[in-house]
Recover the amino acids of this structure.
């Protein structure tokens, strides 16, 4: 069975690194489980919220730079968060697609310290964050896209972001 990305999933890929978009587009054609894109590029405010709630272990998420996406199993018009077979199937499709395209992708479900099954990211080894400045040019027209990468610094006095403050200098 062949699946395709919905208009909503495609919209959530706006601003995501083109290599990762190619992997997701290839994976949806080879997967045995349908999936949707839950989130692509994430705002700093959303990342801070996830960090405060313990849904993320870092303020340096690959979502901030468009190097990560969250995918989820889509079964009968709803997300199935507890379907382990579907998570494994989606991961297999993403790994297969990344191999076919020669693009290294990491799955959060393989992490030992913080298992994050929806999370797929481009490898820092092949796609370091500094590439953002070169690859972002086409995405600068997107509303809310920062003109340059914010830098997160520890700051116990910065209550808006918990123990972090944004340094845009």
């Amino acid at each position: 069975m062949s699946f395709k990305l919905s208009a909503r999933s495609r919209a959530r890929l706006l601003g995501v690194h083109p290599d990762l978009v190619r992997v997701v587009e290839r994976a949806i054609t080879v997967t045995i489980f349908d999936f949707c894109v839950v989130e692509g590029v994430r705002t700093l405010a959303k990342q801070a919220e996830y960090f405060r709630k313990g849904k993320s272990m870092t303020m340096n998420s690959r979502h901030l730079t468009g190097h990560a996406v969250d995918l989820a199993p889509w079964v009968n018009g709803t997300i199935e968060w507890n379907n382990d077979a579907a998570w494994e199937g989606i991961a297999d499709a993403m790994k297969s697609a990344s191999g076919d395209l020669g693009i290294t992708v990491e799955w959060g479900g393989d992490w030992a310290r913080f298992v994050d099954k929806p999370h797929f990211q481009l490898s820092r080894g092949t796609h370091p964050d500094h590439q953002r400045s070169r690859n972002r040019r086409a995405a600068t027209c997107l509303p809310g896209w920062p003109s340059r990468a914010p830098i997160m610094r520890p700051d116990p006095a910065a209550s808006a972001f918990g123990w972090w403050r944004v340094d845009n200098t």
Observations:
- The two ends are 50 Å apart (CA to CA).
- Residues 131-153, 158-169 have pLDDT under 50 and may be disordered.
- The longest strand covers residues 68-75.
